Amino acid sequence: MIFKMPDQYFLTCGASEGYTALNAFDGALLYAGIGNTNIVKMSSIVPPHCTLVDLIAFPPGALVPAAYAAITSDVPGEIISAGVAIALPEDENQNGLIMEYSANGERRQIEEIVRTMAVEGMMLRGWEIKDLKSAVIEHTVEKIGAALAAVVLWSSD
Amino acid sequence: MIFKMPDQYFLTCGASEGYTALNAFDGALLYAGIGNTNIVKMSSIVPPHCTLVDLIAFPPGALVPAAYAAITSDVPGEIISAGVAIALPEDENQNGLIMEYSANGERRQIEEIVRTMAVEGMMLRGWEIKDLKSAVIEHTVEKIGAALAAVVLWSSD
Amino acid sequence: MIFKMPDQYFLTCGASEGYTALNAFDGALLYAGIGNTNIVKMSSIVPPHCTLVDLIAFPPGALVPAAYAAITSDVPGEIISAGVAIALPEDENQNGLIMEYSANGERRQIEEIVRTMAVEGMMLRGWEIKDLKSAVIEHTVEKIGAALAAVVLWSSD
């Protein structure tokens, strides 16, 4: 293995205005509790036997793998939303599946889509779903805004 | 070093339809044999003394570094292709170079372009090429489709 | 922890023409001294107690985490620039913040924007700034060009 196998995960989300799109993204990460870490984007699996935990207080600058959806907009008044969903399998030796979705639109719509995406992904695998979790955030843009939702993985060792 | 040095690699590709673009991408990863892993995207080198292996059965949820090209489309009838090429050097102490390319178009065209990209990259380094490998997949979109080609790195330790 | 904590960093930048956009990007990485590594993109923190070092001669194919801005263009005559800035805190137990920006435009403009982005990010955290560093490169496109600026992290162990 190149990287250690994660054994913990949590869902989080945040939104922010900012001086630029990247500043708004940075603000959304801070709001989500992961703003002083180095997020490494990955596709999109919860390993078997991974435990759901509360938000972890990471050491500043830690490299942290996460699956996330993010959206920025500089159109005042626009409603943007970002969401993640996790479908966990009946068979605990199988992995869970993470889906990410962001778009213009309200929280409710984005949540419905991203949850359906996770269900569809489990159907494609032919696996029964035990549990379906999601985290979605909506933001109304003032000047330059960002919305972000993430599933963060970690190792307790 | 932050991460372990890879010593194995393989090429793979896949295509799929899906409920959304991300579901189609997920299906393409499954087809390619890497759908239940956490792919971490990287640029684009095969380390020296790395061994070509068959598709590895990764532990589910493993974090796996890969260089890849992916394309999605929601235009029925459109032909999309994704490809990767590796140019390996004569001098086995030098690294190989991976190039990725995806576009609308047929497999043959995309394969020619991505192979030429790898050759050009070795010319830029002034290195002789010992071997040139590629993997390309073509997909005709029904509703929402994705094509993906990847070079996956791993460590046997 | 999944990944080792970095304790070294440096800033670098490069620009290049190329056969395709990805070849130009590859050339820019080579120019920047990180072309034969596997860059893993991350968001955007310098850990506390991290030491600024000269460009590191990485083992070829090493997986290297970096925050970077990159831009490519196939419009001859267009001026493209990419830059990174780091704001380091007065309190050495807090982390530094990296910002990345790339756009059409001259080096001077992009440098001003990316430095302001880093300052704004520290203001959002309510942290005093001890030092502000930046690296920006400008490129005038001949056929297909790329500009890249990066902050690269590493561990001395």
Note down, in words, how this protein is organized.
The structure is a homotrimer of 157-residue chains. Chain A has 157 residues and is of the alpha+beta class. Chain A contains two helices and nine strands, in the order E-H-E-E-E-E-E-E-H-E-E. Chain A has a five-stranded mixed sheet with strand order 2-5-9-1-4. A four-stranded antiparallel sheet of chain A has the order 3-7-6-8, covered by helices on one side. In chain A, a hairpin with a 6-residue loop joins strand 6 (79-89) and strand 7 (96-104). The longest helix of chain A is centred in the C-terminal third of the chain and has 19 residues, at 107-125. Chain A is flat. The model of chain A has no long low-confidence stretch (mean pLDDT 97). Chain A binds chain C through residues 2-4, 6, 18-20, 22-23, 25-27, 29-30, 35-41, 59-65, 153-155, 157, and chain C through 1-6, 40-48, 50, 63, 65, 67, 94-95, 97, 99-101, 113, 116-117, 120-121, 124-125, 153.
